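Render this sequence as a predicted structure.
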Amino acid sequence: MMPAGRMFTTLDLKVNLTRPLHRSVGQVRCIATVLHVGRRTATADARIVDARGKLYAHGTTTCILVEPQR
């Protein structure tokens, strides 16, 4: 979503763990979505789910553009 050379760092990060994740759960996947990319900030969210779609964790982040030093 970002052009090459643009750098962002985390401004805010929120993670919710909704249930324990054991080896018996099997394979899980992370579904991440960019929600907004602006001139100075970007936001995204993600969910960790099992093969049946059961939710184990979810989170959001806000990132801010870091201008390279000249």
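Summary. The beta strands are 7-17, 28-37, 41-50, 55-66. The chain is about 0% helix and 60% strand.
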